[in-house]
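Quick one:
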Amino acid sequence: MASIAKIIEVQAEGETIEEAVEAAVEGASHSVRNIENVYVRDFEAIIENNQVARYRVDTKITFLVEGGSNVS
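Output:
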């Protein structure tokens, strides 16, 4: 049986890059199920008062679609 996956783009922030990625996955998990992986497309450091305050990641999150034969 073939499976169908969808990809969404999510941006999130955290005190570390790892925390930002975890926040992206956690945020996506509130609206989608069956998350398979996350691809970090880009990241940046947010600077405040000449110091790194937090990190922002741009991600692509892949999840499997349930009942894939009915997806348009």
